[in-house]
Hints:
Keywords: Disulfide bond, Hydrolase, Protease, Serine protease, Signal, Zymogen. This protein has three helices and 14 strands. The protein is mainly β and 251 residues long. It has two domains: 37-132 and 242-249, Beta Barrel (Thrombin, subunit H); 134-238, Trypsin-like serine proteases (Thrombin, subunit H), CATH 2.40.10.10. The strands form two sheets. A six-stranded antiparallel β-barrel has the order 9-10-11-14-13-12. Strands 2-3-4-7-6-5 form a six-stranded antiparallel barrel. 49% of the residues are buried. Residues 1-5 and 11-24 have low confidence and may be disordered.
Amino acid sequence: xxxxxxxxxxxALCLSCVAAQSSRLVDGESAAVGSxxxxxxxxxxxxxxxxxxxxxDRVVLTAAHCVTRGGSIESYPARxxxxxxxxxxxxxxxxxxxxxxxxxxxxxxxxxxxxxLLVLHSPLTLNANTQPIALATEVPSAGVTLTFSGWGSLxxxxxxxxxxxxxxxxxxxxxxxxxxxxxxxxxxxxxxxTDTQTAQGICVGDAGAPAVYxxxxxxxxxxxxxxxxxxxxxxxxxxxxYRDWISENTP
Length: 251
């Protein structure tokens, strides 16, 4: 896959952000209260647009294209964004906190390094439903099953889900990823459906969705290929690869 095509895929996701329309993890299941206390809803002017992962009481990771203008590293004003944490509902419950500042990866371009760090205006109160997740120190072995979570609808034009949805995918090897997507980058991971009949996967608006293995954050949702719920792998940001950048920019 060329970087130009990757830009087009991210642009499609950005259109839904501007229109405040998102989609949920295709063919997933409703999450139980407190089961994914690190998963947050990123909201733009009051509407859910993307997912995110809580990594401290006041820092969230998400996809850069969720917060930037037209593929550039310039973000929308931080005050336009809020984060809802500690609730499986996207529009009620938990804690709603304004974003204070946004750090976009300085090398974000052509769909690569699609990562942003959000600093909240005030620390969240940590409890059973609101907890940060540890960052993966290395990429798990290919073939393991990762769990990911997000909000939205079953299809591109469907209504949003009010509840957090959870799904699973298999981590592909670098060789499999390159073979299926024709894209090789250390900062990317490929996750494929565990069952081709259900084809769980991310969709428009699920950018920023956390992918977790062994209670560690392994990936952040970046893009999908071939339509929502297709048999093609989804692209996730490799958190182990970005650990140093995350540490350097976390207050």
